[in-house]
Write a structure and sequence with these properties.
Layout (H helix, E strand, L loop, with lengths): L2 H16 L23 H10 L7 H16 L4 E4 L2 E3 L4 E5 L7 H12 L6 H4 L1 E2 L5 H6 L5 E7 L6 E8 L6 E6 L2 H8 L6 H10 L18 E8 L1 H7 L2 H5 L7 E4 L14 H18 L4 E4 L1 H14 L5 H6 L3 H15 L4 E2 L1 H22 L6 H13 L4 E2 H7 L6 H13 L3 E6 L6 E6 H8 L1
Parallel strand pairs: 1-10, 3-8, 3-9, 4-7, 7-8, 10-11
Antiparallel strand pairs: 1-2, 5-6, 12-14, 13-14
C-alpha cells in the first residue's frame, strides 16, 4: 500500500472515531440482523448500556455473558417446570467471531469485573477454564468421596465407610473457555466422557461416569459454559456426532464482532460500576428467594402462539443445532424474570428471550449455512448445483465420487435430501431403459421465475 493510501486510510479511521461510528471499517455481509432492543431488558440491558461506550466489544457479547454469569452466580434453586423437567438459569453459550478482532475476551473481562464487586466468593472461586475430560469436570463440583478403610487386626478386623475427600460444597461452576476449539477436539477422542457429562450438566446437574476407577460423582451441580471460537474452527471441529447427540443444541451460538474503535481504551467510571454492583447484589438476593417461575395468563397465550413454530424440526446441521429452540427460549425468559426479581414471567420476559434466541438462530444459519453435517449429502448438493438444469443420473453421481461412495449410502442421502425438498428427481427416456435424473431443487425454482 502506498504512502498516500496509508494516509487516506488513517484519515478514514480518524473520521470514524471522531464521528462516534460504532461499526468497524470491515464488516462481513454474511451477518445476522442486529439484536432486537427487546433483548436488552431490565438490569441486563442497563449493564450493557453502561459498559458499551467504553469497550470495543460487541454488545451481544456483554449481554450474553452477563446473563450466563448471573444465572450461574444465582445457583440451582429457581426454575421453570416443563412437565417433569426443571429448567434452571444455567446457560451454555458460544461467542463466534474472528480471532482477537472480535474482542470476545475483552467483553468477559468487563462482566467478570462487575461480579467480583459482590460479597460472594463466586467470581474468584467458581469461575474456571481448562475442560479436558468428564471426570475432571465432575471433580470440580464433586460430592464427598467415600471409601472403605480396614480397622482392627486379625479376626476382629472390619471395613468401615470413611470420607476420603470432603468434596465441593459450592456446586456452582462457570466454565469460560477462550479456546473452545480445544473442547471440540477433545470430544473426538475415543473414550472421552466430556460430551455426556456436559449434556447432563445442562439437563439436571447430577453428574457421574461409568469409569470403574473414578468414584467421584456430583449431585445438584449448577454448570454454565461460555466459549469463544472462530467460525472456521467451529465448522471444522463440530462433527456430525456432537450435532446429532444433542451436545450442540444445548449451546447458543452468537456472531460477535468489534463494535467500535477505541484507540485509547474506555473510561468506565468506578462510581458507575459500583452502582451497577449494588443493583446486581439486590437482584441476586431477590432471585434467590424464588423457587419456581410461572407464566401469567397473557404470556401463556403468547407462548401458545409461538410454540408450534419453535418446536418444528428443521433439516440439516442448522436444524440439529437449533432443535432445542423452545427449551432455550423458556430458559432465557426465566432468566430475564429472575433478574427482575419476580416469579411471574411476563410478555416482556418472553419477548426478551425470544429476541435473543432469534439472534442465536440467525447466527447459526450464518455460521453453518447449508452444511448438513453429512459430508456425502454436502457433496451431493454441491455436485448437483454445479450440474445446473441438466442434473445428474445415478451413474454420473457414482462417477463423481469416483466409485468410493457406497451405493446404499448415496441412495439414503438422496432420499433424505429429496424429503427435505432440496433435490428433485425426474425420469427421462434414453435409448435403453428410462433413467432417473437428480437436480438441485433451486434449479427448478430459478427456471420458474
Amino acid at each position: 500500500m502506498s504512502t498516500s493510501a496509508l494516509e487516506q486510510r488513517a484519515d478514514e479511521l480518524l473520521v470514524s472515531v471522531a464521528s462516534g461510528a460504532c461499526v468497524p471499517p470491515k464488516v462481513t455481509s454474511n451477518w445476522p440482523a442486529p439484536l432486537a432492543k427487546a433483548a436488552y431488558h431490565g438490569l441486563a440491558g442497563e449493564v450493557v448500556r453502561a459498559i458499551e461506550p467504553h469497550t470495543e466489544a460487541d454488545p451481544v457479547s456483554l449481554l450474553v455473558q452477563f446473563l450466563a454469569a448471573f444465572g450461574n452466580c444465582l445457583g440451582r434453586g429457581p426454575h421453570y417446570l416443563v412437565e417433569a423437567d426443571q429448567h434452571h438459569a444455567n446457560l451454555y453459550s458460544v461467542l463466534v467471531g474472528a480471532t482477537s478482532k472480535a474482542r470476545k475476551g475483552t467483553s468477559w473481562g468487563h462482566i467478570r469485573r462487575l461480579f467480583e464487586l459482590l460479597d460472594d466468593p463466586w467470581g474468584k472461586e467458581r469461575v474456571h477454564s481448562g475442560l479436558s475430560s468428564g471426570e475432571g469436570l465432575i471433580w470440580a463440583v464433586r460430592d464427598p468421596v467415600m471409601g472403605r478403610d480396614k480397622q482392627g487386626r486379625g479376626a476382629g478386623a472390619e471395613y468401615v465407610d470413611v470420607e476420603m475427600d470432603s468434596g465441593i460444597s459450592d456446586k456452582r461452576l462457570l466454565v469460560v473457555e477462550s479456546e473452545f476449539a480445544n473442547i471440540l477436539r477433545v470430544l473426538g477422542r475415543e473414550g472421552n466422557t466430556l460430551s455426556r457429562v456436559i449434556r447432563d450438566g445442562w439437563d439436571r446437574g447430577d453428574l457421574a461416569t461409568m469409569t470403574k476407577n473414578t468414584p467421584a460423582k456430583a449431585t445438584g451441580a449448577h454448570l454454565s459454559i461460555i466459549g469463544h471460537i472462530t467460525g472456521d474452527e467451529l465448522r471444522r471441529y463440530l462433527d456430525r456426532t456432537e450435532a446429532a447427540n444433542g451436545f450442540a443444541n444445548r449451546f447458543l451460538y452468537l456472531c460477535v464482532q468489534r463494535a467500535r474503535l477505541l484507540p485509547h481504551g474506555g473510561d468506565l467510571h468506578e462510581d458507575v460500576l459500583r452502582d451497577l454492583g449494588k443493583k446486581l447484589a439486590i437482584a441476586l438476593g431477590e432471585a434467590r428467594q424464588i423457587e419456581r417461575v410461572r407464566m401469567d395468563a397473557d404470556t401463556r397465550t403468547a407462548w401458545e402462539r409461538v410454540y408450534p413454530e419453535l418446536s418444528e424440526g428443521r433439516p440439516g446441521l442448522v436444524g440439529a443445532i437449533t432443535a432445542r429452540a423452545e427449551a432455550q427460549v423458556i430458559r432465557l425468559a426465566t432468566l430475564y424474570a429472575l433478574i427482575d426479581g419476580t416469579d411471574t414471567m411476563t410478555r416482556e420476559h418472553l419477548r426478551a428471550g425470544a429476541a435473543l434466541w432469534t439472534y442465536a438462530e440467525h447466527s447459526a444459519r450464518c455460521i453453518f449455512g447449508d452444511i448438513r453435517g453429512d459430508p456425502l449429502a454436502d457433496g451431493l448438493v454441491q455436485a448437483l448445483r454445479n450440474a445446473g438444469q441438466e442434473g445428474m443420473t445415478r451413474t454420473a453421481i457414482r462417477d463423481h465420487f469416483k466409485r468410493h461412495a457406497d451405493a446404499a449410502k448415496i441412495d439414503t442421502a438422496l432420499s433424505a435430501l429429496q424429503g427435505a425438498g432440496e433435490v428433485t428427481k425426474s425420469t427421462v427416456q434414453t435409448e435403453g431403459r428410462p433413467a432417473d435424473v437428480w437436480q438441485w431443487a433451486a434449479t427448478e425454482a430459478t427456471e420458474a421465475t
